[in-house]
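Is this the right way to post structure tokens for a design question? Let me know if I should format differently. Anyway, here goes:
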């Protein structure tokens, strides 16, 4: 792969409300961010955009793709970490209602599997699979990935050969 451009989706109201992710459309700021980013990405001459199926990521990817005249490929391998029962909850409520799990997540995140969700190891396996596939499909190209914070952190950890935590 020539270059892999890692993009976190634009802002949603859930971001500003302090919710654990899992939903939400781009808000006005997120749309503005995505348009500005699309213009900035023109100089990279990317050949494809891959995105998470979440609405916020797909909206960001579509805005970029329109500006760059590129195809968008959606893959579930780029989904955010599945926070299970935490998805959509206010962080302040989680700290109050489930302090033990929150503290465990803060101190040793790689050992946590979210109830009805997944662990960082699950995420790393998914991201490793995606990275292998994308390297094979686009060995000499610049590719844009629109995803979420956790998958991006996992990609960087894999590339640097460091633990997820």
């Amino acid at each position: 792969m020539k270059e892999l451009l890692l993009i976190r989706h634009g802002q949603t109201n859930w971001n500003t409300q302090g919710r654990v992710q899992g939903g939400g459309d781009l808000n006005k700021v997120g749309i503005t961010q995505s348009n500005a980013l699309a213009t900035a990405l023109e100089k990279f001459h990317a050949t494809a955009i891959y995105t998470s199926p979440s609405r916020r990521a797909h909206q960001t990817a579509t805005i970029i793709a329109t500006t760059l005249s590129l195809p968008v490929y959606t893959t579930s391998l780029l989904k955010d970490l599945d926070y299970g029962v935490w998805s959509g909850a206010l962080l302040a409520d989680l700290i109050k209602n489930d302090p033990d799990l929150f503290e465990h997540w803060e101190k040793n995140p790689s050992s946590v599997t979210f109830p009805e969700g997944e662990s960082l190891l699950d995420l790393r396996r998914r991201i490793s699979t995606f990275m292998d596939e994308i390297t094979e499909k686009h060995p000499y190209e610049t590719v844009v990935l629109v995803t979420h914070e956790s998958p991006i952190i996992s990609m960087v950890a894999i590339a640097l050969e460091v633990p997820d935590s």
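Format looks fine. Someone answered above. Worth noting: The mean pLDDT is 92. DSSP finds seven helices and four strands in the chain.
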